[in-house]
Amino acid sequence: MPDDTDAEVVIRALAEVGVDFSIPKSALVDFLGNAEFTPYPAMSAALLRTLDSRKLKRPVFLDVIVFNYEHSPGEPSPRRIEDVDTDTLEAAVLEGFNNRYAQQESAFSGLLKPLDVPQPPVQPPQTLAMAAEGTVRTQEGVTLVDTDNPRVEVTARLITVNSEAAHAMVPQELLRQNNGWRFTNGDVRLSVSNGEADAGPRPVRAGSLSDGALAWPTVDGTFSGATGAEVRLQSRIRVGYRPVDVKLLIEGPKGFAANSAAQGHIALDPEVLLVPVEVARFFSDAVPVSNISMTGQMALWDQVPVINETTNFRSLDGSTGELRLAERKWDVWPVLDGEGLYTHLGWVSPDSIWGRAKIRFRLVNYIDIKTDNVHAAPVAGEGKDDRRLRENDDTLSAHPQHISDKRVVKVIFMHRIAPPDAPQIGQALIGTGCVGIAAGASDKFADIAHEIGHLITGSQTHTDNITQPDNVMNDPGPGTTITDTQVGQAREWAKSFADFWAH
């Protein structure tokens, strides 16, 4: 019996006997460390005692076992191993097994591997059976990509699943229309785990996310398990230098269904330099700067899709608790335009421009700072144009939520960054690692990438818009291209942030 205070030891011990999990690993570690308020420590210990070094012939999710146990008659939720009823536990494992693999095993003993029969060798981790955007190469079973926010695609076959509410086998059905989709008699997502968020003390700064990502069809149409239809599913995830485990999970009405579960391991190519970005919105009651938000900035910097709570819901049957359908609609699903650029709210993503230098920008912190009117929208007659921006930079640097122990690029959004008679839409503060962006400007285009370019070059100078008419460092009218010299400058600059990702 492992030390039940060490979540990692418990997870490894459970894996040895065929118990895995579908929730983010970080959440499971929290549950296993909280014996007072969750049943996970008690039930994990009881599972290890019940199996007693015997192994399940196919894995069963721990979180599904706990769910089934807690929803058994009487709704038990044990906090001590002696409170775990063995018969109820075995029934919970049996139900999880049958739902996951569409089997009809009638006894817990039928789930165990025979002791006296030689077992086939354990297969090595499956290399990526799904397509990841920006794939560079596969190395030791890990798919390396050149973007920190790849689109991932995988094909799944829909099936029929058992429904207690319907007293019958019912088909999984998936419908997509434009940016909306509905999954009937189930749900689908990508499980993303074991990334940077599990590795270090700063999950907000994670080089990758450990979480589930919504998956939806790549094309419009209706797909039904009644005909065994195959459907291509897509999702967007964030990755970093530490590989994440990516697994397709499809549910039935109660628990996980028996659809084939493609899985793989994805990481950011070490040749790509990841730059951390901290965004602050300066606003006042009279100048709300309302077009800047956390979700919008996630979409801009990391191409994280935006979905509204009112268009994201799951419907359960009132009597059995079974999942009837999941219905969702993206408010924003990131796509490239005809020029191969990604834009959001009028701004060109800096990744679209500086990505040529194998640089990617990662939003690691977002802060809303309420201020007075003149620091949200400077007025005329107050001296130097960047005075208010510099004062806001000082305020941000002193803010308790500011990342001060590691170097980051600071991006400050104000309604205006300079008085009304000044031409600036953006301004770089050389030496402070800060750029200011006028959120109220209508002419945005590549201005964020342009101002970051001043930080990269360490200069306020501009390129010649006659000889280089589309260069990002032109003024007026920044373009969207960079030169080989700028590529070299950008890479040297980006290397200075490597320490941020070190654990």
Report what the structure shows.
This protein has 503 residues and is α+β, with helices and mostly antiparallel strands. It has 12 helices and 26 strands. The strands form 7 sheets. The chain has a 6-stranded mixed sheet. A 5-stranded antiparallel sheet has the order 14-9-10-20-19. Strand 21 (343-344) and strand 22 form a beta hairpin. The longest helix has 16 residues, at 86-101. The protein starts with 6 loop residues before the first helix and ends in a 9-residue tail after the last helix.
Compose a concise summary of this entry.
With 503 residues, the protein is an alpha+beta fold. It is 22% helix and 28% strand.
Mean pLDDT: 87
Structural class: alpha+beta
Helix segment count?
A: 12
Largest sheet: 6 strands, mixed
Number of strands: 26
Envelope shape: elongated
Spans of at least 5 consecutive residues whose pLDDT stays below 50 are: 119-128, 199-207
Q: Could you tell me the radius of gyration in angstroms?
A: 26 Å
Order of strands in the sheet with most strands = 4-5-17-16-11-12
Question: How much strand content do the residues show?
Answer: 25-35%
N→C terminal distance: 30 Å
Helix content: 10-25%
How do the strands and helices of this protein lay out in sequence?
Blueprint lengths: L6 H10 L2 E2 L4 H8 L7 H12 L8 E2 H9 L15 H16 L29 E2 L2 E5 L2 E4 L5 E7 L2 E4 L4 E4 L1 E5 L2 E5 L3 E6 L2 H4 L11 E4 L1 E2 L3 E4 L5 E7 L7 E7 L12 E6 L4 E11 L10 H9 L3 E11 L6 E10 L10 E2 L2 E2 L1 H5 L4 E12 L2 H4 L10 H12 L10 E6 L11 E4 L4 E5 L8 H11 L26 H11 L9
Parallel strand pairs: 1-2, 5-17, 18-23, 18-24, 24-26
Antiparallel strand pairs: 3-6, 4-5, 6-15, 7-8, 9-10, 9-14, 10-20, 11-12, 11-16, 13-15, 16-17, 19-20, 21-22, 25-26
Helix pairs in contact: 1-2, 4-5, 11-12
